[in-house]
Write the structure tokens for this entry.
Amino acid sequence: MDAAFGGFAACSDETKHLLEGWEQADSITVDCHKWLNVPYESAVFFVKDQYRLLQVETFQNSNAPYLGDPLENFSYLNFLPENSRRLKALPAWFSIMAYGKQGYQEIVENNIRWAKQLGHFIDSSSDFKLLAPVRLNTVCFTLKNEADQDKVNEFLEKLNSTGKVFMTPTFYNQHKGIRAAFVNWRTNENDISMVFDLMKEISKTLN
Ligand SMILES: *Cc1c(COP(=O)(O)O)cnc(C)c1O
């Protein structure tokens, strides 16, 4: 199960229902360089004990007898595609120790609050429309006017070139769209107003 972002929904009582049943998955991966706010690239994965052998067989390096027999001497080194381990756990561990359960609950809930706020601004605007309801940290939207579909790229380029915000392109439900993904723990209400004002301003300059 790809829970790169979604896994962190478990940090909040308001969103953990979105993960109902995930314990049924054979394996789950969660990206630490996303909502845990540690540097790229860092991830954890949980694999059911019954797949331990499959995991080692899949990722063993048959050309490297000098690595020993992973089936004989278990090492996490042989448990992952990298066949290598640097101490990426350290920043993850420090962050968890520093902010704890409550800290991550606040980060997740704040990001979702501001994502929903931007979603609300978009929903009540005459320039933009949502392409999907905002359920977590991502706001997927496009220009409101159907005739403006070919201006979405221009809008995004102008928006990102301000250097004040960075959004990414997408395609959803037959529409060119834009994704605003919230992850930074410092994002606040003022940022949302500033960015939305900027969006409105830029939408008036499209050719
Ligand atoms: C970020 C993300 C990925 C890609 O993971 P990286 O480790 O950043 O390359 C895959 N799936 C989802 C749902 C993601 O959010």
